Amino acid sequence: DAGVIQSPRHEVTEMGQEVTLRCKPISGHDYLFWYRQTMMRGLELLIYFNNNVPIDDSGMPEDRFSAKMPNASFSTLKIQPSEPRDSAVYFCASSLWSGGEDTQYFGPGTRLTVL
Amino acid sequence: KQEVTQIPAALSVPEGENLVLNCSFTDSAIYNLQWFRQDPGKGLTSLLLIQSSQREQTSGRLNASLDKSSGRSTLYIAASQPGDSATYLCAVKWNRDDKIIFGKGTRLHILP
């Protein structure tokens, strides 16, 4: 398997623009996670899905952020409108819940810069 | 509040030395604990996962221990190599259906 795939790898945009980040989880995994990583706050969970259903979105910072998982092989994280403080690395991860082994496999991340 | 702390934030060690990275967590009733490695510009890679009922896990030169009563875990790296240079993150889950809480990591630099 190719692992978790994220696109784009880098995104530079101007304040106020819409940003869409994409993720393809590992085939067969039933959990998908979106994280944000900054120097100040470290790695924070934004939202996670189980079998394509959002389970916990309490980490989504505000209404400008939204996430969807229309099917088992694709998810998006959208920021509209974007602001400079959204600049961070956004990671997608997936896992398979199986007998307690719930290791998460991370994608390479999308580095977002909002000017 | 459930928190995971890693001290120090950065560590430099000469090649060949054995070293220990520390992780502490509030609330000892954890479900599991994981150690991850993150290389610059890359995602996280899981190294070791310790279930609540376990005391330690080993993989090659790595050994992770868990002491729930004191709220601590250590990652022991034997015979360190320059390729071990990376950021190491500790992550704790308190219940099966809970989200993972990550520490901010220890940035390790192995000096050739």
Give me some keywords for this one.
heterodimer, A: 115 residues, mainly beta, 7-stranded mixed beta sheet, 4-stranded antiparallel beta sheet, 11 strands, 0% helix, 54% strand, globular, B: 112 residues, 6-stranded mixed beta sheet, 5-stranded antiparallel beta sheet
Structure commentary:
The complex is a heterodimer of chains A (115) and B (112). Chain A is mostly beta strands and 115 residues long. Helix content of chain A is 0%, strand content 54%. Chain A has strands at 5-7, 10-13, 19-24, 31-38, 42-50, 53-56, 65-71, 74-79, 88-95, 105-106, 110-114. In chain A, the strands form 2 sheets. In chain A, strands 2, 4, 5, 6, 9, 10 and 11 form a 7-stranded mixed beta sheet that branches. A 4-stranded antiparallel beta sheet of chain A has the order 1-3-8-7, with no helix packed on it. Chain B has 112 residues and is mostly beta strands. Chain B is 0% helix and 54% strand. The N and C termini of chain B lie far apart (40 Å). The A-B interface holds A 4, 33, 42-43, 45, 48, 55-56, 59, 91, 93, 100-109 and B 32, 34, 41-46, 49, 51, 89, 93, 96-97, 99-100, 102-105.
Overall SS class of chain B: mainly beta
Q: In percent, how much strand structure appears in the residues of chain A? A: over 45%
How much of the sequence of chain B is in beta strands? over 45%
Helical amount among residues of chain A, as a percent range? under 10%
Counting H and I runs of at least 4 residues, what is the number of helices of chain A? 0
Following the backbone from N to C, one meets helices and strands of chain B in this order, namely EEEEEEEEEEE
Number of helices of chain B: 0
Q: What is the approximate shape of chain B?
A: globular
Q: What is the CA-atom radius of gyration of chain A, in angstroms? A: 14 Å
Whole-number mean pLDDT of chain B:
94
Whole-Å distance between the termini of chain B? 40 Å
DSSP summary, beta strand count of chain A = 11
Sheet with most strands of chain A: 7 strands, mixed
Mean pLDDT of chain A: 93
What is the structural class of chain A?
mainly beta
Low-confidence stretches of chain B: none
Q: What oligomeric state do the depicted chains represent?
A: heterodimer
Helicity range of the residues of chain B? under 10%
